[in-house]
Design brief:
Layout lengths: L1 E7 L7 E6 L8 H49 L1 H12 L5 H24 L8 H22 L1 H13 L3 H27 L5 E4 L4 E4 L6 H41 L1
Antiparallel strand pairs: 1-2, 3-4
Keywords: Membrane, Transmembrane, Transmembrane helix
Amino acid sequence: MNQYIGCQIVGEDSLTYESAPVDNNEDTDSGTNRSLSLVALFHASSCEARYTEYFTFFTCIVSNAVSVGCCSHITNVGSSIECRREVRLVWGQHWTSMQALVTINYYGVHGAMIYFAYVMSGFGPDLSHPMCEGFVIFGGAYVMISIGLSQTAVILLLRVMKVWDDRQFIKVALILGFGICYGMSVAFNTLMMRQPAMKILYSDKPRTCYIQDKDVYIAGTWGAMICIVMVLSYSLYYLHYRRCSGNLHNNTEIELATM
């Protein structure tokens, strides 16, 4: 007989158990066999419970994340003043190509989040392993494009810094910092999608897609995104420092002139 010693999600099945062979010779007592059977049943039940709890927790996290994101957007435009301001500044003006891309991306992200939650929470239709693989790969590619389009803060920051500090190397450093960090994120995300070890499968019980093995490149993907935030934060801090220094210098000149 086999004694179950652990569990994992592998292959085409929703759940399988790791087992180790136990020598079952003629001298083995029948009571021992029954005890081993009870132990195997206990391990199987606990594995099933952990499996169900994990995916229940995952689907709840996905639903909560989408709810928070949509609630944040509704809160921002919920008041009549903010709603009129968004209509006037966004929808009531002639769009350039950049404004069109940013606006479509902004509302497209909310729609993609809702659909992603619909599929990953188990309320969507039954999928297959190839469909899950395509869904996750498309989602990863769309996330990278969306992050690139949403970084209009870099352009706005360049325009603001031109007023306070028009030195060329500041612009070059900011553009290079963003380009390097974003390029690293795209590279790690591409490696993550192309690595043979990453198996994207579909599970029947929670009716959701999952990645079988832990990914080694996802830390690089999100680490590069954090670097982008750090570059922007440092640039804003530097801009604020230059502005405060300029105001202090101007105030000192005014005080000396009035003495």
